[in-house]
Structures are given as structure tokens and as C-alpha cells.
Amino acid sequence: xxxxxxxxxxxxxxxxxxxxxxxxxxxxxxxxxxxxxxxxxxxxxxxxxxxxxxxxxxxxxxxxxxxxxxxxxxxxxxxxxxxxxxxxxxxxxxxxxxxxxxxxxxxxxxxxxxxxxxxxxxxxxxxxxxxxxxxxxxxxxxxxxxxxxxxxxxxxxxxxxxxxxxxxxxxxxxxxxxxxxxxxxxxxxxxxxxxxxxxxxxxxxxxxxxxxxxxxxxxxxxxxxxxxxxxxxxxxxxxxxxxxxxxxxxxxxxxxxxxxxxxxxxxxxxxxxxxxxxxxxxxxxxxxxxxxxxxxxxxxxxxxxxxxxxxxxxxxxxxxxx
Length: 322
Ligand code: CP
Ligand code: NVA
Fold this sequence. Notes:
The chain is of the alpha/beta class and 322 residues long. It folds into two domains: 14-135 and 301-316, 3-Layer(aba) Sandwich (Rossmann fold); 139-294, Rossmann fold. The chain has 13 helices and nine strands. A five-stranded parallel beta sheet has the order 7-6-5-8-9. Strand 1 (49-54), helix 2 and strand 2 (75-80) form a beta-alpha-beta unit. Helix 1 packs across helix 13, helix 3 packs across helix 4 and helix 5 crosses helix 13. It binds phosphoric acid mono(formamide)ester and norvaline. Phosphoric acid mono(formamide)ester binds at residues 58-61, 131, 139, 275-276.
């Protein structure tokens, strides 16, 4: 492939795929997960190499991509800022030209979305966003798959994504990369996000990259955002890269802690999600994250299965008949 080749796809934002492609991916993730649980070998990516670039810390993203690629028969190279020329100011464009001649797919976790966009524009192979300051599409892919597993139809297919239509997701906390990605997902899949952030930390529709402002509603009080929600979700008060604001944020966010009172006003069968890592006693109480409505461990595990489906799709296209 050459950079800019129309046949090659990247996954840089949630809105890079259509609803019907999500239906396909969730189906594949379901099949891939069930084979994995049955110890069935499935190695369609033999001899393929994934390069992972981490400019920020990670546990879930690192393990899920690395284990996923090995399980599918491929291999992995892991680069960090500290041990590569990326940390010594080699331009993203040059890094992309070189790295993409030596591997089949790249996953990047970095600061500015513009870095990943520049990398992708000069890459011969698909590039996946493993988190930027602006977006975290792989996480929302896992979150939606988890919702469908718990509350969707048994059969999957287009009905699985249709089950999201009309639902309410409550976002409590920072207007950050996760919040932006939830808004993109709402616009594509037809649900609504009830957003409550402290003043000064609102979501910005322009940064979120949405055109339909009807896909979200803003609430001053987090409990009002949770009222009637099918899913309540939150994230750390301070995202990676914003540590200098820690103290200021700790004061501003003190009322944005998902607790049992907030869960009580949501739908009786509402789920709680958190992308993790979590800080009990800050953005969520221990009672909620360790309670019966929480599906955070399934959510974390599903990173593995959805990303295997994503890499399969980007490298091999649709698998026969699915
Ligand atoms: N949720 C998530 O992306 O976790 P890591 O930062 O551990 O990769
Ligand atoms: N918003 C968090 C998500 C971590 C997975 C961050 O960017 O640090």
C-alpha cells in the first residue's frame, strides 16, 4: 500500500467507521471471543507485525494489543518515546515512512491527535489510535460491545447496534478524550449522551468532532445527568498529560463522583462502566465500581476481543459471509 491509498483504512477516530461496519465488528468480536474462550486456535495474522508506539503509560492497551496480535499468529514490536528516536524529535512523518515499510499495522498512543494524523498520512499501513488527548476510539468500541453483551439481543448483527438507538448514556466528569469519543459514537449509533462536567471542563463539540448537537445534552448537576440513564460512566479527574492541573482539578471535580445515589436515579438495570485505571473515592465510590451494576472487568477484557476484530478487519477486510 502507498500512503493515501483509498483501499487502506485507518482507525483514528470513532467516526472513521459507519454504523454498519460497527455491526460487522461486534459480530466478529463475538465470534473471536467465543473461539478464544473455547481454546480454539485462530491465527489469520501469521507473519504480520504490529508496531506499537507508546508516548504515554498503559496497562490495558499494551497487553490487549500485544496479546491479541500474538494470539492471532503475528508478532509485535513495542516502541516508547524514551527508547526510540521519537523522543529525540524525529518527525512523525519520517517515523511513519520508515516504520510502515517494516511492519503491517501500527498502533499509537500519544498526546496530540495531530501527531497520529500526520503519522497516518505518511504511513503505508493502517494506523490505529490507542488514545490521544482528544479521542480513545478502541475503548468505546469495547464499551459498546460490553453493553451489547449485557443488554443487547442474543443474535448480534445489525440488531445489536440497533439496540443502542434511543438509549441514554450518562457521562459524569471531565469533558476529555473519552467524553469526546462517546459523543462521536452517539452521533453514529443514535443514542444520547447526558453530559455533566464541572464548569471550565465542558465538552467542546468542535474538538469532539460532531456535527449533530442533538446527540448530547448538558446538565449542571451530575445526578440530573444520571436520571433515567441506561449506562452511567466516568473517568479519572486528571487525564495523562494534565498532571500539572491535579490539585486544581481535585477541587473542581469533588462533586463529580459517581455514587449509589446517582446509580439509584438511573434505570433499575443501568450498567456502570469506567475505562480504568480508576481512583476509588474520587470519580467513583468503591460501592459503585465494585458493586452489582459495574461491568468494568468485562469492559477491560473486551479490549482484547474487539481489537482483534479491528486488526483483522483492517488487515484482511471482511471475513467470508460475515
Ligand atoms: N483504558 C485504558 O486505555 O487503559 P490503559 O491506560 O491501561 O491502556
Ligand atoms: N482519560 C484518560 C483515559 C485513560 C485510559 C487519560 O487520557 O488519561
